[in-house]
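FAQ

Q: What does a record look like?
A: Structure on top, sequence underneath. For example:
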């Protein structure tokens, strides 16, 4: 946890950054991923006061598949979330769509794929109420052995079916890279699609040009390489640290002492890609005590990056 003295030091250091450096590398807004059930005014107000400007709402499938929940009840909950965000002054930047073994856009079983698309269509109708800028999808769950080409074709089919509805909701569609340091999870399953830089490139080249990339920095070693490969197709982030081999979701290393991401290289890659979205944290809630730590951590990372630039000049 940061002390008040450390916090003051960080703020004073940022003020001291040269005007030219801030013009060339303006700081990003800070965001945080939260679950739908956590969206209430008091929580969002606390986040806003801590320096969090926007959120990603992670939607589970339960509310949409519960037959006891009417469309009117779901609509009311969506409107309540929208009102809470507006009242707190926080932007709903993105929606994380449900995913899982039976909610898989790439399923080779056409019945399951169609069921997944139907569920996502239903959810997208409610997403209009939340008015996000970005709607994020996982490309797949785990795959069976030796079926990647078929799964890629099925994913592309689903994306082409859903993208028009995403645009109707006033948002853009993004596909997230997945954890995949090695091909096999075990003797029965392969890792999900979009597991390497090369596979993300292969798949995104086949996507419509108005479908974009979400970079999860916990899912891959050297995430700056993926940012460089995607360039201005990167439209949103999942920020956390790790080792590229497990779902660690640590706070960035300088703030936690865990993980091996190089945050100066990552930030440079983001500016080279002309990224203007938020620094959207997706950190395990056990990794920090309050949202102010997320804001302060970004300020520390940003200050270190600017100082590294100045040292090179």
């Amino acid at each position: 946890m940061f002390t008040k003295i450390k916090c003051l030091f960080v703020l004073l250091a940022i003020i001291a950054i040269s005007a030219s450096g801030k013009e060339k590398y303006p700081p990003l807004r800070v965001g945080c991923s939260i679950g739908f059930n956590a969206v209430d005014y008091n929580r969002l107000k606390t986040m806003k006061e801590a320096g969090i400007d926007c959120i990603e709402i992670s939607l589970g499938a339960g509310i949409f598949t519960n037959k006891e929940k009417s469309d009117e009840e779901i609509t009311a909950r969506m409107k309540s979330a929208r009102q809470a965000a507006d009242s707190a002054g926080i932007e709903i930047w993105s929606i994380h769509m449900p995913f899982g073994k039976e909610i898989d856009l790439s399923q080779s079983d056409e019945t399951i794929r169609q069921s997944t698309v139907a569920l996502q269509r239903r959810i997208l109708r409610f997403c209009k109420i939340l008015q996000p800028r970005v709607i994020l999808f996982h490309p797949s769950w785990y795959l069976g052995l030796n079926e990647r080409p078929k799964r890629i074709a099925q994913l592309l089919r689903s994306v082409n079916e859903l993208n028009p509805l995403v645009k109707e909701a006033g948002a853009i569609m993004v596909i997230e890279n997945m954890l995949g340091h090695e091909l096999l999870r075990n003797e029965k399953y392969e890792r999900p699609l979009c597991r390497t830089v090369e596979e993300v490139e292969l798949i995104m080249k086949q996507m419509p040009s108005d479908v974009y990339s979400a970079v999860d920095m916990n899912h891959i070693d050297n995430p700056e390489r993926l940012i460089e490969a995607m360039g201005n197709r990167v439209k949103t982030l999942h920020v956390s640290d790790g080792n590229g081999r497990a779902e660690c979701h640590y706070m960035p290393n300088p703030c936690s002492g865990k993980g091996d991401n190089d945050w100066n290289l990552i930030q440079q890659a983001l500016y080279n890609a002309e990224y203007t979205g938020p620094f959207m944290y997706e950190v395990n809630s056990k990794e920090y005590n309050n949202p102010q730590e997320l804001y302060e951590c970004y300020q520390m990372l940003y200050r270190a990056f600017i100082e590294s630039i100045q040292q090179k000049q």
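Q: Is there anything notable about this one?
A: The first strand starts at residue 30 and ends at 35.
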